[in-house]
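I am writing to request your help with a piece of structural work I have in hand. I am sending you one protein, given as its amino acid sequence and as whole-number tokens for its backbone shapes. Kindly check, if you would, that the fold set down in the tokens agrees with what the sequence suggests. You will find the record immediately after this paragraph:
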Amino acid sequence: MAQTSLLRDRCLVSFSILGGVILGITVLSLLSMTVKELSDIPHLVRVAMDAKVIDSIVLTMGAGANAIALLLIFGIPLAYVLARADFRGKGMVESIVDIPLMLPHTVAGILVYLLFMKRGLIGAPLQSVGIVFEDAYPGIVVAMLFVASPYFINSAREGFEKVPVHLENVARTLGASRMTAFFRIALPLSARHIYNGAIMAWGRAIGEFAAIIMIAYYPMVISTLIYYRFTTSGIKESSTIAFVMILACFVVFMMLRYLSRFLGRSDDRV
């Protein structure tokens, strides 16, 4: 019935055709790569089983997950403040949150490097306690955190803004503190937005290249490894690694999107 209704609705049909152009470009590019890679199965298997490729994919996804963990700790409080508080300079704070969206990736990398390098404002004191960012795993995480933060914070803020304020006010009139109202009402009702924001931020984080190589060329994340193999072994080797990464990301994102269907569905009716 739903398909029949869609076909009879000229507006939806027109929009589907226009939107299909975007999908078509993505599908054609994927098909082009897939056909090329499947034409040489032995080469594909050899590259896919390369320990460096596997380690790089695991490193990339793990660093992205750590960046999201930090965003959960520091980003959720900021998103809640932006959603609930009106204060002088709020527009400037919101613009600062969005800055990583607007910057070229190399500029983001320079900003991260200046702050976390061995002589940087944060990098220098942390180096004295043994935490190094240059050419080290923490450098990858902070670069991912910087470029992915707007996606998470804006999504979480949107989720908090959709929670009716009067629900928290009722809880507070019944004796709950603001902190209790946050954990018992605002946070659970915003869980779906926070989860979707985390997925988008994680995807942005693992796709970063320029900002990461500015501070941590080593250990190689997958984007750095692809660039390295492109310059040393050519397009065939690098495109096969890219194909393996696409397959891994596709599977992971399919699972994450599927799980999102079960998170906070009943809360959307609020």
User: Anything to note?
Assistant: Residues 36 and 240 are 9 Å apart (CA to CA).
